[in-house]
Amino acid sequence: MGNKISPGNPSVKPDGTRVATLWGELAWQLGGPPAFARVQADDAQATSPGDVLRELFNEYGPCLILVDEWVAYARQLHDQSDLPAGGFETQFTFAQVLTESAKLAKNCLLVISLPASDTSGRSHSDDVEVGGTRGREALDRLRNVVGRVESSWRPASAEEGFEIVRRRLFQPLSDPAQFKDRDVVARAFAEFYRTQQAEFLPECRESDYEQRIKAAYPIHPEIFDRLYTDWSTLVKFQRTRGVLRLMAAVIHSLWEKGDRNPLILPANISIDDPRVQSELTRYLSDNWVPVIEKDVDGPNSLPLKLDSELPNLGKLSACRRVARAIYLGSAPTTAAAHKGIEDRRVKLGCVMPGESPAVFGDALRRMAAAATYLYQDGPHYWYSTQPTVTKLAEDRAEQLKREPDKVAHELEQRLRKDLQRMGDFPRIHPMPQSGADVPDDLDARLVVLGIGQPYSKETNSPAELAAKAILETRGTTPRLYRNTLVFLAADKTRLQVLDEAAPRDLWWMRRARPPCRVPETERRALSTLQRSRFRRVDKRSASTIGL
Question: Do 30 and 60 meet the contact criterion of CB atoms below 8 Å apart?
Answer without folding.
Answer: yes
